[in-house]
Write a structure and sequence with these properties.
The protein has about 240 residues and is mostly helical. The protein has 14 helices and no strands. The longest helix has 18 residues. Pfam families: TPR_12.
């Protein structure tokens, strides 16, 4: 059975939508087909086709705990994407409760991470920490896989409060986990985040050294990243600072 992650390309939700539609049509199990259709709805939401996404989610009839959880999650994501975060929050909380009751740890952590994204300031930091603790308390690989993303989110939430020391610690921990996983793209993003936090802490020499190292690795791989170039230009120009 093909995993949902294998069908996703978040940079191309339209193509992802078509893959999920085809997989749902070919699914031999009704509950599995509805799981796949929840991801069609998510892809529609990412394209701004909110009404279509809502209609599709409302048409799903499976009583499977996974389907019920995913319907709550995707209804919440559609609301948040359409600018209604306050209305999305209770749906994400309900999805977390539903997932917890069904032993779906990965979906529970997903829902908790979405709750955090509907909040601001210290509330967002606290909610992200709760999601991170839940992920770390699980033995489910789907839950544990959320750890680096949650650490990145924690770093971003802390940076929003100006707590760059805590942000750097979260970004460094996320980088260590990304390196262990070995996926170069996420590793490079995590490297950039660490250097960005160093700059905002006033540790500009370290930040520049790390961005230059990242730039060299990108060039060697035949890649470019304008955000790396922007940071290097800022640091070399002598105007960088917290």
């Amino acid at each position: 059975m093909t995993s949902l992650d294998a069908l996703w390309d978040f940079d191309d939700p339209a193509a992802s939508e078509e893959r999920f539609r085809a997989a749902a049509a070919a699914a031999g199990d009704a509950a599995r087909a509805d799981v796949l259709r929840t991801q069609v709805a998510r892809a529609l939401g990412l394209q701004g086709r909110f009404d279509e996404a809502r209609l599709l989610l409302g048409s799903l009839t499976s009583n499977s705990p996974e389907v019920r959880t995913r319907v709550l999650l995707e209804r919440g994501r559609v609301l948040r994407s359409s600018g209604e975060s306050s209305a999305a929050e209770p749906l994400f909380r309900a999805a977390a409760v539903q997932a917890a009751g069904a032993g779906l740890d990965g979906l529970e952590v997903d829902a908790l991470h979405m709750v955090a994204l509907t909040l601001e300031g210290q509330d967002q930091v606290d909610a992200t920490v709760r999601a991170l603790k839940r992920a770390r308390s699980s033995t489910d690989p789907a839950a544990l896989a959320w750890e680096p993303s949650l650490l990145n989110n924690l770093g971003m939430a802390c940076s929003g409060l100006g707590d760059w020391t805590r942000a750097l610690a979260a970004f460094e921990e996320a980088l260590a986990l990304r390196r262990t996983a070995g996926d170069v793209g996420p590793v490079n993003v995590a490297r950039w985040m660490v250097a960005w936090a160093l700059r905002n802490l006033g540790r500009t020499d370290e930040a520049l050294a790390r961005q230059r190292e990242l730039k060299a690795d990108l060039v060697a791989a035949g890649l470019e990243d304008p955000y790396v170039d922007e940071e290097i230009a800022l640091l070399e120009g002598g105007t960088a600072g917290p």
